[in-house]
Amino acid sequence: MEDYEEILGKLVEKLSGPNVSEDVIAEVAKKATANTTTDEKTIPVGVSNRHIHLSQTDLDKLFGKGYQLTPLKDLSQPSQYASKETVIICGPKGSISKVRILGPVRSRTQVEVLRGDTFKLGIKAPLRISGDLLNSGQVTVVGPKGSVELEEGVIVAQRHIHMLPSDADRFGVKNGDIVTIVIEGDRGGELNNVAIRANDKSGLECHIDTEEANALGMNSKTRIRIK
Amino acid sequence: MEDYEEILGKLVEKLSGPNVSEDVIAEVAKKATANTTTDEKTIPVGVSNRHIHLSQTDLDKLFGKGYQLTPLKDLSQPSQYASKETVIICGPKGSISKVRILGPVRSRTQVEVLRGDTFKLGIKAPLRISGDLLNSGQVTVVGPKGSVELEEGVIVAQRHIHMLPSDADRFGVKNGDIVTIVIEGDRGGELNNVAIRANDKSGLECHIDTEEANALGMNSKTRIRIK
Question: Whose CA, among A30, A39, A44, B216, lies 20 to 30 Å from B199?
C-alpha cells in the first residue's frame, strides 16, 4: 500500500485532461490531506495484510491479455484500491491463497508478505521500503490463466509514515528520517526503525502490517505518536 | 507454555516417590537453572505458536477414555512437551487445524491463541496470564473421537518472563512486577506490560507469541533485556 506519490502523480496527470471538474480535483486534495487535522500530536494507523501489486505484463500472464482489475474497496490513500481479484503465492515449502491484488497496476510487480509468511513459504524476504526490490525474495505467483516466477520482488514492508511536508514540519521530521513510534494500550510499546515518507501527495498515516498490529494491540482505529 | 511451577511441582511430588534416582532430580534442577549463567544482562526468548493444554477429562472426550498423550519434543521448561497429537479449534467465523497439544495434562483446559486467530475464529479472547481464565474466550475443540465446547478457557497470552528468585534479585525485579523489555535489530523496539514470574522452579526465559516475535524480528536465538 505504498508509492502513493507515484499513483497520485498519475492521477493528477489524468486529471489534467480537458474533462475534469473542479469537484474531482477537490476530492483528490481532500483525500490527500485527510487525517492531518484530526489530532495535532497523533497519527492514524493503516494496517496491511499480505498483498501484491502487479505490473500489467504480469496481470496479463495471470488473468489474460489486457485484463483490467475490478476495484472492490477504496484504500485510504488516493486512487489506491483493493481489487476483487486474488492470486496464490507459492514457495518451496508452501503456498498462500487469496492474496489480495492492490490496484492500479504498477511498473513492477511487488509482493509484500508477513514475516510469518516467509516461514510458511520457505523463502527469505528482506525488510525493505516499497520499490527497493534488488535481490529481494522469490515466489511463484499463480492466477486463473497462468503463473509468473518472480526472480525478485518479495519483501517484508518496513514500517513507515506517509505525511505531507507540512506534517513533517509539525512533527519536526523530514523525508527519509528514521523514527521510533510510541503505542499505548495493554500491548503497547515502541517500534524503532520507522521511515518517514514526506511528500505533497500523501495523507498522514502510519503503515504497519498485521503482525505488528496484533503484537502491539493496534487496529485501524489506533493512533500512535512519534517519540 | 506456562504454569511450569505447577507442572514442576507435580513432577517433584512424583519424584519424591521411592524409585527416583539422584540423577533424575539433578536433571530437573539442571533444566530449571539452564540459561541463567549464559549472559548476565540478557534473557533468552521462547516463542510460542497457538497451542492448547487439556484436562484429562477433555482429553478423554477428544481422543477416547484414558488416552495418553505421545510426547514429540521436550520444551525448554522442565517436564513440558509438545505432543504428537493436535486438535481443531472452531469459532463462529472459522476454524484452525493442527493446533498442538502441550503436555502433560492440566487441571483445566486452556487455549492460547494469537490475536490474529481471534479474528479468523470470530471470537474474543482477553490478554491474560496463564491460568486466569474467568470469562475468557469460547471455542469448540474437535478431536478424532469427539468435541468439547469450552464455555471459557481461550486467552491471548500476556508476555512474561520466567525466572528464578536469584535472577529476580540480579535484575532488580520481583514476582508479579510488570516491566518493559528492549529488543535490538532492524525491527527492534520495546514491549511494555511484560509480567515477571519468579519462583524456584522456572528457567530464565521470556515468553512471547509468534506475532510478537515476527513484529519485533525475534526468534528463538534472540536475547532481550529488561529496560
Answer: B216
Closest CA to A36 of A143, A170, A215, A136: A170
Q: What's the start-to-end Cα distance of chain B, in Å?
A: 24
Helix (H, G, I), strand (E, B) or coil at A222: coil
Asked if A212 lies within 8 A of B215 by C-beta distance, the reply is yes
Under 8 Å between Cβ of A7 and A78? yes
Residue numbers in A near B210 (CB within 8 A)? 116
Q: Between A193, A212, A214, which is nearest B114 by CB?
A: A214
B131's grid cell: 491460568
Distance CA B191, CA B45 (A): 13
Cell numbers for A81? 484500491
Q: Across the interface, do B114 and A210 touch by the CB < 8 Å criterion? A: no
Dist. CA B119–CA A152, nearest whole Å:
31
Tell me the per-residue pLDDT of B39-67, one tens digit each, with 9 for 90 and over.
Answer: 678 999 999 999 999 999 999 999 999 99
- ipTM over 0.85? The verdict is no
> Which grid coordinates belong to A213?
498490529
Is the distance from CB of B183 to CB of B211 less than 8 angstroms? Answer: no
A127: exposed, middle or buried (Cβ count in 10 Å: 0-12, 13-18, 19+): middle
Contacts of B146 (CB under 8 A, 6+ apart): B61, B62
